[in-house]
Specification:
five-stranded mixed beta sheet; alpha+beta; Trna Endonuclease, Chain: A, domain 1
């Protein structure tokens, strides 16, 4: 009897393929929800920090002791707590964020009700016809990286235009920056209209491609890693074997006494909408430049040197001090009993590299010795 009843409850169209599709859809939906929740929490955290700073400026009992040095003193004190992204520059930005976006109080209220003045300011801003999106929508659909770009835009009508287009077009941060730099607002023909009356500007082919392939919210931002308490080294997902190889390589390079000073490991670099982790970063005290080292215990591939070259260019454009020399990269293809070295120069003159850089850097002979001495077979699984 029970067997017949069970048979009648079967769904003819619920096939194995349907089961696969349902699981995939569940996973995709929940992953998006998780990513949005992380970004919303980070945005609210930054806004609330800005609120607290401004609130202290206005009502702090001992504010007179700090005045113009408040942010410097606060950054120094917070450093002892190890809080992510709370240096002087970021604290200034959080306060600016709070002042530029009082609307976000409506999204923050369930977590931490602001004072009456802030709530009134938020209510006024949210009801203003100048703005197309509520604070809740901004927090849920845009990352702090988006909002950090938007809050720099004035007047408010122009900012509202980019908010609307960013939300409607699902722009990535890169697309938003490109649109602002390309004077999209000024060239749209809508600059003189009221934002609520204007039709959304057309999205060009590049933006369409971005929206189709890139979610506006990702977890690749190093600020997200730090907010979650993750170190880039942990996010790189190296195996125990790979970690042991890097331990051995780091110690070996330092022992060679070429003037390399260890700086960091698994350096997270965001290039456009892609990212990578550089295994080891040194500063060369003789050459006065950064040296990026990547260990590749596999066969040589041109894509490996191209990626390292892009990372070297990133360091050259964003990390070089005024008196530094251009950085270089060393890609080591190390397998059992053999090693091969490739250099990433990112446009550095090759004759200068050969005459000045190469004699001061580890070469094939030293790295061959590393391959022979490493106890773990470099090409074993």
């Amino acid at each position: 009897m029970s067997g017949n009843s069970s048979q009648t409850r079967r769904q003819p169209d619920f096939t194995f393929d349907r089961l696969l599709g349902a699981i995939e859809e569940i996973h995709h939906h929940q992953a998006i929800q998780a990513t949005q929740a992380i970004h919303a929490s980070l945005t609210l955290r930054n806004w609330l920090i800005g609120y607290q700073i401004e609130n202290y400026r206005r009502m702090g009992a001992d504010y007179f002791r700090y005045r113009d040095h408040l942010i410097d003193e606060l950054a120094t004190a917070l450093r002892r707590y190890g809080l992510a992204r709370c240096d002087r520059r970021e604290l200034y930005r959080y306060r600016q964020f709070y002042l530029a976006y009082p609307r976000i109080a409506e999204a923050a209220a369930p977590i931490w009700p602001p004072d009456q003045a802030a709530a009134k300011s938020a209510a006024t801003a949210a009801s203003s016809p100048t703005f197309w999106a509520t604070g809740k929508v901004l927090v849920e659909q845009l990352s702090f990286a988006h909002l950090a770009e938007l809050m720099e835009i004035n007047p408010p009508r122009k900012r509202a235009f980019y908010e609307r287009e960013c939300l409607r077009g699902r722009w990535s941060t890169r697309t938003l920056k490109r649109k602002i730099a390309g004077l999209h607002y000024e060239l749209s023909g809508l600059a003189e209209q009221r934002p609520e009356e204007a039709e959304p500007a057309s999205v060009d082919a590049d933006a369409d491609a971005d929206a189709a392939t890139i979610s506006p919210l990702t977890v690749r931002d190093p600020g997200v890693f730090e907010f979650l308490g993750l170190k880039p080294r942990e996010a790189a997902e190296k195996t125990d074997r790979e970690e042991r190889l890097l331990d051995a390589l780091e110690a070996f390079l330092l022992d060679l006494n070429y003037g390399l000073c260890f700086e960091t490991r698994q350096k997270y670099i965001l290039i456009g909408e892609g990212h990578c982790f550089v295994d080891l970063v040194f500063y060369h005290r003789i050459l006065k430049c950064h040296v990026l080292v990547e260990l590749q215990p596999t066969e040589f591939g041109h894509e490996n040197i191209a990626q390292l070259d892009a990372c070297v260019a990133w360091y050259r454009d964003g990390m070089m001090a005024e008196d530094d020399n251009p950085p270089v990269g060393i890609l080591i293809h190390a397998r059992q009993d053999q090693a091969r070295v490739e250099y990433a120069l990112a446009g550095l003159d090759r004759r200068l590299f050969v005459s000045r850089y190469q004699p001061a850097l580890p070469g094939d002979r030293e790295l061959q010795r590393f391959a022979e001495q490493t106890p773990t077979p470099l090409d074993s699984a």
